[in-house]
Amino acid sequence: MKAAQGVRLLLVDDEPHILQFLEIGLVNEGFEVQTASDGLSAIAIAADFKPHVAILDVMMPGMDGFEVCRYLQAEESEIAVIMLTAKDEVDDRVKGLSIGADDYMVKPFSFDELLARIQARLRNHFPGLLGEVRCGPFRIDGRRKEIRHKDEILELSPTEYELLQYLIINHGLVLSKAMILDKVWGYDFGGEENIVEVYIRSLREKLGDKEHRTIRTLRGSGYRVDLI
After folding, report:
1. Are 203 and 163 in contact (CB under 8 A)?
2. What architecture is the 8-125 domain classified under in CATH?
3. 3-class secondary structure for the chain?
4. Where are the domains of the chain?
5. Does domain 132-225 have CATH number 1.10.10.10?
6. Angle, to 10 degrees, between the axis of helix 90-98 and the axis of helix 65-75?
7. Residues 25-46: pLDDT tens digits?
8. Cα–Cα distance between 224 and 161 in angstroms, integer?
9. pLDDT tens digits for range 114-150
Protein backbone atom coordinates (compact mmCIF):
# COMPACT_ATOMS: atom_id res chain seq x y z
CA MET A 1 0.00 0.00 0.00
CA LYS A 2 1.92 3.04 -1.27
CA ALA A 3 1.41 6.57 -0.02
CA ALA A 4 0.17 9.13 -2.54
CA GLN A 5 2.44 11.88 -3.75
CA GLY A 6 2.00 15.16 -1.90
CA VAL A 7 1.59 13.72 1.60
CA ARG A 8 3.87 15.74 3.91
CA LEU A 9 5.53 14.26 7.00
CA LEU A 10 7.59 16.04 9.66
CA LEU A 11 10.05 13.84 11.61
CA VAL A 12 11.41 15.19 14.89
CA ASP A 13 14.06 13.28 16.87
CA ASP A 14 17.40 14.21 18.43
CA GLU A 15 18.99 10.90 17.38
CA PRO A 16 20.51 11.38 13.89
CA HIS A 17 20.55 7.68 12.97
CA ILE A 18 16.82 7.37 13.67
CA LEU A 19 16.04 10.44 11.59
CA GLN A 20 18.11 9.17 8.69
CA PHE A 21 16.62 5.67 8.79
CA LEU A 22 13.04 6.93 8.90
CA GLU A 23 13.59 9.64 6.30
CA ILE A 24 15.06 7.22 3.75
CA GLY A 25 12.28 4.69 4.30
CA LEU A 26 9.43 7.19 4.14
CA VAL A 27 10.80 9.02 1.08
CA ASN A 28 10.98 5.64 -0.66
CA GLU A 29 7.29 5.17 0.17
CA GLY A 30 6.45 8.37 -1.72
CA PHE A 31 6.11 10.86 1.15
CA GLU A 32 7.49 14.39 1.20
CA VAL A 33 9.64 14.49 4.34
CA GLN A 34 11.24 17.24 6.41
CA THR A 35 13.29 16.53 9.56
CA ALA A 36 14.22 18.42 12.71
CA SER A 37 16.47 17.47 15.62
CA ASP A 38 14.86 19.75 18.23
CA GLY A 39 11.51 21.26 19.10
CA LEU A 40 12.18 24.86 18.08
CA SER A 41 13.41 23.80 14.65
CA ALA A 42 10.34 21.60 14.25
CA ILE A 43 7.99 24.49 14.92
CA ALA A 44 9.83 26.74 12.46
CA ILE A 45 9.74 24.07 9.73
CA ALA A 46 6.07 23.25 10.34
CA ALA A 47 5.06 26.87 9.81
CA ASP A 48 6.15 26.72 6.14
CA PHE A 49 5.99 23.00 5.40
CA LYS A 50 2.42 22.46 6.71
CA PRO A 51 2.81 18.72 7.40
CA HIS A 52 -0.16 16.36 7.35
CA VAL A 53 1.50 14.16 10.00
CA ALA A 54 4.15 14.99 12.61
CA ILE A 55 6.15 12.17 14.22
CA LEU A 56 7.57 13.52 17.48
CA ASP A 57 10.08 12.05 19.88
CA VAL A 58 9.02 12.76 23.48
CA MET A 59 12.44 13.05 25.10
CA MET A 60 14.36 15.91 23.51
CA PRO A 61 16.56 18.59 25.08
CA GLY A 62 14.96 21.99 25.49
CA MET A 63 11.42 21.84 24.15
CA ASP A 64 10.19 18.26 24.49
CA GLY A 65 7.73 16.43 22.27
CA PHE A 66 4.76 17.26 24.48
CA GLU A 67 5.40 21.00 24.11
CA VAL A 68 5.85 20.68 20.37
CA CYS A 69 2.62 18.66 20.10
CA ARG A 70 0.70 21.26 22.08
CA TYR A 71 2.02 24.06 19.88
CA LEU A 72 1.35 22.26 16.60
CA GLN A 73 -2.18 21.36 17.59
CA ALA A 74 -2.88 25.00 18.44
CA GLU A 75 -1.42 26.32 15.18
CA GLU A 76 -2.22 23.49 12.74
CA SER A 77 -5.62 22.18 13.80
CA GLU A 78 -5.81 19.41 11.18
CA ILE A 79 -2.35 17.95 11.77
CA ALA A 80 -2.08 14.35 13.00
CA VAL A 81 0.58 13.65 15.65
CA ILE A 82 2.31 10.37 16.43
CA MET A 83 4.46 10.41 19.59
CA LEU A 84 7.60 8.28 19.96
CA THR A 85 9.02 7.30 23.33
CA ALA A 86 11.77 5.06 24.65
CA LYS A 87 9.63 3.93 27.57
CA ASP A 88 6.13 2.52 27.86
CA GLU A 89 4.73 4.71 30.63
CA VAL A 90 0.96 4.93 30.95
CA ASP A 91 1.18 8.47 32.37
CA ASP A 92 3.18 9.64 29.34
CA ARG A 93 0.72 8.01 26.98
CA VAL A 94 -2.28 9.60 28.69
CA LYS A 95 -0.54 12.99 28.76
CA GLY A 96 0.25 12.81 25.06
CA LEU A 97 -3.29 11.83 24.12
CA SER A 98 -4.80 14.48 26.39
CA ILE A 99 -2.88 17.31 24.68
CA GLY A 100 -3.88 16.22 21.21
CA ALA A 101 -1.59 13.38 20.11
CA ASP A 102 -3.35 10.83 17.91
CA ASP A 103 -1.09 7.84 18.40
CA TYR A 104 1.79 6.60 20.54
CA MET A 105 4.65 4.22 19.68
CA VAL A 106 7.32 2.78 21.95
CA LYS A 107 10.90 2.41 20.71
CA PRO A 108 12.13 0.17 19.25
CA PHE A 109 9.42 -0.31 16.64
CA SER A 110 9.29 -1.76 13.15
CA PHE A 111 9.19 0.50 10.12
CA ASP A 112 6.16 -1.40 8.77
CA GLU A 113 4.25 -0.69 11.98
CA LEU A 114 5.04 3.03 11.77
CA LEU A 115 3.96 3.07 8.13
CA ALA A 116 0.67 1.38 9.02
CA ARG A 117 0.00 3.91 11.77
CA ILE A 118 0.78 6.83 9.45
CA GLN A 119 -1.68 5.42 6.92
CA ALA A 120 -4.30 5.05 9.65
CA ARG A 121 -3.87 8.65 10.75
CA LEU A 122 -4.12 9.88 7.16
CA ARG A 123 -7.30 7.89 6.63
CA ASN A 124 -8.84 9.41 9.76
CA HIS A 125 -7.68 13.03 9.32
CA PHE A 126 -7.53 13.38 5.53
CA PRO A 127 -9.93 10.80 4.07
CA GLY A 128 -9.77 12.30 0.57
CA LEU A 129 -6.00 12.60 0.42
CA LEU A 130 -5.08 9.02 -0.41
CA GLY A 131 -8.14 8.16 -2.45
CA GLU A 132 -8.90 4.45 -2.51
CA VAL A 133 -6.56 2.14 -0.60
CA ARG A 134 -6.21 -1.49 -1.67
CA CYS A 135 -5.14 -4.14 0.83
CA GLY A 136 -5.37 -7.70 -0.46
CA PRO A 137 -9.06 -8.48 -1.10
CA PHE A 138 -10.13 -5.19 0.56
CA ARG A 139 -10.64 -1.75 -0.97
CA ILE A 140 -11.17 1.18 1.42
CA ASP A 141 -12.78 4.34 0.06
CA GLY A 142 -12.46 6.96 2.78
CA ARG A 143 -14.45 9.55 0.87
CA ARG A 144 -17.49 7.32 0.61
CA LYS A 145 -16.83 5.54 3.92
CA GLU A 146 -17.12 2.24 2.08
CA ILE A 147 -15.16 -0.99 2.26
CA ARG A 148 -15.31 -3.58 -0.51
CA HIS A 149 -14.38 -7.20 0.08
CA LYS A 150 -13.72 -9.20 -3.08
CA ASP A 151 -15.45 -6.40 -5.04
CA GLU A 152 -18.61 -6.56 -2.90
CA ILE A 153 -19.58 -3.50 -0.84
CA LEU A 154 -19.97 -4.47 2.81
CA GLU A 155 -23.04 -3.18 4.64
CA LEU A 156 -21.38 -1.70 7.72
CA SER A 157 -22.49 0.53 10.55
CA PRO A 158 -20.22 3.57 11.20
CA THR A 159 -18.52 1.76 14.09
CA GLU A 160 -18.08 -1.42 12.06
CA TYR A 161 -16.51 0.63 9.29
CA GLU A 162 -14.04 2.29 11.69
CA LEU A 163 -13.16 -1.04 13.31
CA LEU A 164 -12.66 -2.95 10.07
CA GLN A 165 -10.66 -0.08 8.56
CA TYR A 166 -8.39 -0.05 11.63
CA LEU A 167 -7.89 -3.81 11.46
CA ILE A 168 -7.17 -3.80 7.71
CA ILE A 169 -4.74 -0.88 7.73
CA ASN A 170 -2.86 -2.55 10.57
CA HIS A 171 -3.00 -5.97 8.91
CA GLY A 172 -0.40 -8.40 10.16
CA LEU A 173 -0.16 -6.65 13.53
CA VAL A 174 -1.67 -8.06 16.71
CA LEU A 175 -4.11 -5.51 18.12
CA SER A 176 -5.21 -5.90 21.73
CA LYS A 177 -8.73 -5.10 22.89
CA ALA A 178 -7.34 -2.07 24.74
CA MET A 179 -5.71 -0.75 21.55
CA ILE A 180 -8.92 -1.29 19.57
CA LEU A 181 -11.05 0.44 22.20
CA ASP A 182 -8.58 3.34 22.26
CA LYS A 183 -8.54 3.86 18.50
CA VAL A 184 -12.14 3.05 17.56
CA TRP A 185 -14.18 4.01 20.64
CA GLY A 186 -11.80 6.55 22.19
CA TYR A 187 -9.34 6.26 25.08
CA ASP A 188 -11.95 7.57 27.54
CA PHE A 189 -14.50 4.87 26.60
CA GLY A 190 -16.18 3.72 29.80
CA GLY A 191 -17.96 0.60 28.57
CA GLU A 192 -17.06 -3.08 28.68
CA GLU A 193 -14.23 -4.61 26.65
CA ASN A 194 -16.55 -7.36 25.40
CA ILE A 195 -18.08 -4.79 23.01
CA VAL A 196 -15.05 -5.55 20.81
CA GLU A 197 -15.96 -9.24 20.68
CA VAL A 198 -19.53 -8.36 19.66
CA TYR A 199 -18.35 -6.22 16.75
CA ILE A 200 -15.69 -8.72 15.66
CA ARG A 201 -18.36 -11.42 15.53
CA SER A 202 -20.55 -9.20 13.38
CA LEU A 203 -17.69 -8.41 10.98
CA ARG A 204 -16.84 -12.09 10.61
CA GLU A 205 -20.44 -12.84 9.68
CA LYS A 206 -20.44 -10.11 7.02
CA LEU A 207 -17.12 -11.33 5.63
CA GLY A 208 -18.22 -14.96 5.60
CA ASP A 209 -15.24 -15.65 7.85
CA LYS A 210 -16.65 -18.71 9.60
CA GLU A 211 -13.24 -20.28 10.20
CA HIS A 212 -11.67 -17.03 11.42
CA ARG A 213 -8.99 -17.04 8.75
CA THR A 214 -9.33 -13.34 7.92
CA ILE A 215 -9.86 -11.92 11.42
CA ARG A 216 -7.84 -14.19 13.66
CA THR A 217 -8.07 -14.38 17.44
CA LEU A 218 -4.78 -14.72 19.31
CA ARG A 219 -5.83 -15.81 22.76
CA GLY A 220 -4.56 -13.52 25.48
CA SER A 221 -3.19 -11.05 22.91
CA GLY A 222 -5.94 -9.73 20.64
CA TYR A 223 -6.86 -9.85 16.96
CA ARG A 224 -4.98 -9.82 13.66
CA VAL A 225 -6.21 -9.46 10.09
CA ASP A 226 -4.54 -11.70 7.51
CA LEU A 227 -4.99 -10.65 3.89
CA ILE A 228 -5.98 -13.88 2.17
Report:
1. yes
2. 3-Layer(aba) Sandwich (3.40)
3. CCCCCCCEEEEECCCHHHHHHHHHHHHHCCCEEEEECCHHHHHHHHHHHCCCEEEEECCCCCCCHHHHHHHHHHHCCCCEEEEEECCCCHHHHHHHHHCCCCEEEECCCCHHHHHHHHHHHHHHHCCCCCCEEEECCEEEECCCCEEEECCEECCCCHHHHHHHHHHHHCCCCCECHHHHHHHHHCCCCCCCCHHHHHHHHHHHHHHCCCCCCCEEEECCCEEEECCC
4. 8-125, 132-225
5. yes
6. 20
7. 998 888 899 999 999 999 999 9
8. 16
9. 988 888 888 777 766 666 777 889 988 877 889 999 9
What is the pLDDT at residue 189?
65
How much is the pTM?
0.58
Return the sign of the alpha-carbon dihedral for residues 211, 213, 218, 224.
negative
Burial class (CB in 10 A: 0-12, 13-18, 19+), 135: middle
Q: How many CB atoms lie within 10 A of CB 20?
A: 13
